[in-house]
Amino acid sequence: MTTPRDLLIIAMDMGSSSPVGQGDLSLALAGAEVIDLLAARAVRLDGDLIVPGDRPALADRLLEEAAASLVREAPYESVADWLWRRGRDLAAAYQAELEAEGQLVRHGRRGISFRAGELVLADSPDRRRAADRLASDEPVLAFLAEAVRVRGERTGESPDVTDVTDVTDEAVATVLAAVDDALVELAAVRQRRAIEDAAFDNIWRGGVG
């Protein structure tokens, strides 16, 4: 299992009563990919720039795809730019991958075809391993889970229990900080759009009235 897969499983498992936004999850998954690529020595960071290294064999197809999509010539891509580029629709890609593997199944409903059902997690060793990893308070996964607001729901704690300073690896901490900044930026964009939509609705109602 990889960190992105563990994160997706946790987000679906713990976020059932309050589903995680696809945009938030996609950004966090893109960050998790960089962290796993760092661990595999497929990349290193030069400041906040992602510098590709060797192309080690990666067992995970989507992680291999991530490695293949790296910018391999200077000027290299920043972590922030990677998150927004690679993160586009990434949650849907991981969901499709896990569904193809049988990790996700469609829950049939009365009167609705099986394919039209809701995607739910299968009871699998991977699901249990992801839960065990979160329960162990491994700081990287804990931070990412809290960043997309699933850990606080599970534990009843504040969602800001884990801090970047809990992560001792400087490169990993840089990636996590970039994920946090991107999520804050995404939230600000949503809020701005909500305000603009509300203002437009008020103007429309005023004009109609």
Main beta sheet: 3 strands, antiparallel
Query: How many structural domains in the coordinates?
Result: 1
As a percent range, the share of strand residues is 5-15%
Give the beta-strand count.
5
Assign a percent range to the helix content. 55-70%
Shape designation: globular
| Low-confidence segments | 110-115, 152-161
Element pattern in H and E: HHEEHEHHEEHHHH
Structural class: mainly alpha
The overall average pLDDT, rounded, is 84
Can you give a write-up of this model?
The chain has one domain (3-208). It contains 9 helices and 5 strands. The protein has helices spanning 3-14, 22-39, 61-68, 79-86, 90-100, 125-135, 139-147, 151-155, 170-208, and strands at residues 43-46, 49-52, 77-78, 104-107, 118-121. Helix 1 runs antiparallel to helix 2 (22-39), helix 2 crosses helix 4 and helix 7 (139-147) runs parallel beside helix 9. It is globular and about 60 Å long. The model is unreliable at 110-115 and 152-161 (pLDDT under 50).
SSE blueprint:
Elements: H1 3-14, H2 22-39, E1 43-46, E2 49-52, H3 61-68, E3 77-78, H4 79-86, H5 90-100, E4 104-107, E5 118-121, H6 125-135, H7 139-147, H8 151-155, H9 170-208
Antiparallel strand pairs: 1-2, 2-3, 4-5
Kindly summarize this structure in a few lines:
With 209 residues, the chain is mainly alpha-helical.
Top keywords for this entry?
209 residues; mainly alpha; 3-stranded antiparallel beta sheet; two-stranded antiparallel ribbon; 9 helices; globular
